[in-house]
Prior knowledge:
This is Cbb3-type cytochrome c oxidase subunit. It holds the Pfam family Cytochrome_CBB3. It is found in: Cell inner membrane. Belongs to the CcoP / FixP family. This protein is mainly α. The protein folds into 3 domains: 72 residues, no CATH class; 101 residues, Cytochrome c-like domain (Cytochrome Bc1 Complex, Chain D, domain 2), CATH 1.10.760; 91 residues, Cytochrome c-like domain (Cytochrome Bc1 Complex, Chain D, domain 2, Orthogonal Bundle). 54% of the residues lie in helices and 7% in strands. Strands 1-2 form a two-stranded antiparallel ribbon. Strands 3-4 form a two-stranded antiparallel sheet. Strand 1 and strand 2 form a beta hairpin. 22% of the residues are buried.
Amino acid sequence: MSSAWSIFVIILTVLMIVGCTWLLWSTSRPIKGEGETTGHVWDGDIREYNKPLPRWWLFLFYATIIYAIGYLAYYPGLGNFAGLSGWTSAKEHDAQRDEAEARLAPLFARFENMPIEQIARDPDGLRLGRSVFGNYCAMCHGSDARGAIGFPNLTDSDWLWGGTPDDILATVLDGREGLMPPLAAALGSDLAVSEVAVYAQSLSGRKVDPAMAAAGKRRYDTLCIACHGADGTGNQALGAPNLTDDIWVYGGSLDAIRKAINEGRHGQMPAHRDIIGPVRARLVAAWVWAQSQPEGTAATP
């Protein structure tokens, strides 16, 4: 919060407290015509009298004001003033996290150095891995790990960066960043972009215009071969997808492929090493790896 906003909040808060105090004090003073009726009558015999608030009620209001002043002095609430206690929500969060970590440490301890393949055959390990995945990965890859447009399906055998247990663990721990540059300017025309897109579709076995695909292949061999390979099977060292299996992260329609060629793609998986730690990363990597294995290879979670 800037100094200007901090001063504004402090002044506004103090004025509100002073205003409430003044209002209580002014209404507690003797009033003209006290004890007389106001002339308002309900249901024939219920009359409104002109009387101040009862003393005990006023004292309760004054007590709330005193409590508010004490609270604002002890806890942060007056702009940038940190409060006498030094309390912060970040410290509270860290304390609760540390308490939870200490409580759960024995549960995770036995998986610390266990090979991922072995965790994948351990029902308890898979249950924990699935829980971690649901908390940290499902928002992108879905609760069933089948992904969505822009987020890879983790249950098949198609991997951008490699599907071995060690590859998956490295992805979880350190993240991945895949970049396809926009190629519209290099190709020079919409027709050229369409030709390359049609050739990309042909690599996955789709029926396309042969002339368009042939023209697209010549352009592909000039610009795209460096990442996706001469045969279109991609390069896991670069995160370049395999174009021959008809599995498309961003969609395989002509328009979707044209959009990728024209504008490029920038996919980023954040690193989770500092978020979930190495043991939880190992557990979630085991669960993810198990989803892509033939049935019976891994234990049922």
